[in-house]
Amino acid sequence: MDFNLTQEQRMIYEYGDRISKQFDHNYWRGYAEKNERPTELYKQITDDGFLGIMVPEAYGGAGQGMTEMLLFMEGLSNNGIPLLNLVVGPTMTMGLLAKHASEDMKRRFLPGGCTGEIKFCFAITEPNAGSNSIEITSIAKSDGKGGFKLNGQKVFITDANCADYAMVVTRTTARADVKKKTDGFTIFMVDMKKKGISKTLIPIAFPVPETQWQVFFDDVALTEADVLGEVGKGFNILFDTLNPERIILSGLCTGVGRFALKKAVAYANDRKVFNNTPIGAYQGVQHPLAMARSEIEMASLMALKAAWAFDQGLPAGEFANMAKYAAAEAGIHAVDSAIQCFGGNGFTKEYGMYDLYGLVRLLRTAPLNREMVLNHIAEHVMGLPRSY
Ligand SMILES: Cc1cc2nc3c(=O)[nH]c(=O)nc-3n(C[C@H](O)[C@H](O)[C@H](O)COP(=O)(O)OP(=O)(O)OC[C@H]3O[C@@H](n4cnc5c(N)ncnc54)[C@H](O)[C@@H]3O)c2cc1C
Predict the structure, then answer these.
(1) Domain 236-381 CATH class label
(2) Which residue puts its alpha carbon closest to atom 4 of ligand 1?
(3) Are residues 142 and 148 in contact, defined by beta-carbon separation less than 8 angstroms?
(4) What's the angle, vertex CA 294, arms to CA 289 and CA 295, rounded to 5?
(5) 55 CA to middle of ligand 1, Å?
């Protein structure tokens, strides 16, 4: 067993340290407060070749895997510049395309994805089905001429406004008409400029550059060429994007947690309120920070294990769910204990601690809420009865 990163992996992990000298947390926060895409930061990341980490070199990418994508996200987040768009585009969409798309589809999307000319969003959540994706009702029915008409709606679709294409998980056969509940799902690459697509903004209560949208599909015309994988068999490949989502978001949480703790330690070493002693000398301040740091490092290890399993083609669900659970809780504890350490300053814009809380707290609920993650572990890992 070797816990060392290769030289290349270390370079990817430390990229966030380098780029944050130019685009730091305050830069990120400026865009987060405006809910705007930090375009210069994305341009730099693109020019430095990081959008296509999971894309083979033949299609313009770096030919790396989930492990490197995780290290990249963790490195950025360590420096307080977490980017949700890297989750839905380069990881979920481009990663799945690289793994399962036809040659034509790869050529159509991946080179443009790597240069940032084509941007993606990922759409599975629906208002009525919620966490129970089996019950989604959006449907692409055959138009009788070899094509499909897509109807339905999706919610909380990150960056649907700036995406050129949405990777849409929908049914092609209604739930009532399939024998096995996981049959009848199809994944389409949908051109967001198509007739019949509309969207409305869902304002989000914490600062984040990415915006969330409700997207409506009204008789949107699709063709066989827009299908990723096989018609009706989308569920079979779905976890090759949902597990990476859980893994990379683990890296976002552990990174943001480390960033908050680093700031808290600097503050605690400096701030003196009793007997000319830094508040960091009190165990009441130290222990929550030390516990949070330990939780962050444990979660980070589990995320690496999940990424490693995914890259080896081994079942990654167990580790991805555990990593996502642990990282969300660790991130929340880290930011919360950092806020406490900053006292009143923890709530000011100047010190920029409280504005991180919403993001790490999100990860307890999305992409899969803590309860469903624990349901999965209880049922599939531990053999307890299904409770719902
Ligand atoms: C900022 C943001 C960005 C997002 N981005 C995307 C995106 O890009 N694409 C996309 O498709 N989706 C996206 N989502 C949607 C997200 O994945 C869902 O909100 C999430 O999966 C929870 O679904 P829900 O909101 O319908 O909650 P519900 O399914 O209604 O669940 C509500 C709560 O009930 C509890 N619960 C539900 N079922 C069970 C159970 N069986 N056992 C125990 N407790 C249970 C949980 O506590 C859960 O939090 C995003 C959401 C947010 C907020």
Answers:
(1) mainly alpha
(2) 156
(3) yes
(4) 95
(5) 29
* Cβ density class 226-260: b for 16+ within 10 Å, e for less: bbbbebbbbbebbbbbbbbbbbbbbbbbbbbbbbb
pLDDT lower than 70: segments of the chain: none
For the record, the structure tokens of 116 come out as 């940032």
Nearest atom, ligand 1, residue 208 CA: 1
Q: Which burial class, exposed, middle or buried, applies to 310 when counting CB atoms under 10 A from its CB (0-12, 13-18, 19+)?
A: buried
Query: Ligand 1, residues 132, 365, 380: which to mutate, most atoms within 8 A of Cβ?
Result: 365
If one counts every other C-beta atom within 10 angstroms of the C-beta of residue 7, the result is 8
**Which residue has a Cα nearest atom 14 of ligand 1?**
156
Q: From the alpha carbon of 204, which atom of ligand 1 is closest?
A: 1
- Residues 313, 361 contacting (CB under 8 angstroms): no
Cis peptide before 127 (omega within 30 of 0): no
Q: Which one-letter amino acid corresponds to residue 150?
A: L
CATH classification number, 7-119, choose in 3.40.50.300, 1.10.540.10, 3.30.70.1400, 3.60.15.10: 1.10.540.10
- The Cα 326–Cα 88 span in angstroms is 21
> For a substitution probing ligand 1, which of 125, 199, 357 has the most ligand atoms within 8 Å of its CB?
125
Q: What phi and psi values does residue 348 have, to the nearest 5 degrees?
A: -95, 155
pLDDT at 252: 98
The model's pTM = 0.97
130 neighbors 156 (Cβ within 8 angstroms): no
Instruction: Write down the CATH number for the domain with range 121-235.
Output: 2.40.110.10
Looking up tokens 């709530």 gives 347
Q: What is the C-alpha radius of gyration for the chain, rounded to an integer number of angstroms?
A: 21
pLDDT tens string 44-77: 999 999 999 999 999 999 999 999 999 999 999 9
| Residue nearest (by alpha carbon) to ligand 1 atom 26 | 130
Q: Compute the residue count for the chain.
A: 388
Q: What is the pLDDT of residue 173?
A: 97
- Alpha helices by DSSP H, 280-316: 283-311
Residue 234 to residue 195: CA distance in whole angstroms? 24
pLDDT at 1: 86
Domain ranges of the chain: 7-119, 121-235, 236-381
